[in-house]
């Protein structure tokens, strides 16, 4: 492949990714998926199989499916993203924490609270190491854990989270 061709494909992927983000922000989820999938298709052809950008693409499509309530599709994409990140990133990278959190969100929305709690706790462990103690993502982790305990009726644990 010529250098210019790779550059054009990168630009095309970027444009589709941005269009997908816009459609997602507008709540036009089916269109968002189409654009994000086009970007992913290009990236799968041009990037190594464990490139962090691929993980981000899987994650972004998973986000849209989660918003649509298509939890099994979202979960599959989040898990694929996490698989890539475990290979491509250091073990305490904040993106790993975000992936664990996203999987927790899906399980939480499905009412599978013990699974959600497990993923939220793993996310929190990473965030405690990777982020400063006053980072808002830490607060989000504690909040998510507290909400799960609340949903499970374990109110004292919810208050202490």
From TrEMBL:
GO CC terms of this entry: kinesin complex; microtubule
Primary location class: cytoplasm
Keywords tagged on the record: Cytoplasm, Cytoskeleton, Microtubule, Motor protein, Repeat, TPR repeat
SUPFAM superfamilies the UniProt entry points to: TPR-like
TPR repeats: 13-46, 55-88, 97-130
A Pfam family recorded for this sequence: TPR_12
Subcellular location: Cytoplasm, Cytoskeleton
Subunit structure: Oligomeric complex composed of two heavy chains and two light chains.
Function, as annotated: Kinesin is a microtubule-associated force-producing protein that play a role in organelle transport.
Family to which the UniProt record says this protein belongs: Belongs to the kinesin light chain family.
Descriptive protein name: Kinesin light chain
Gene source species: Rotaria sordida
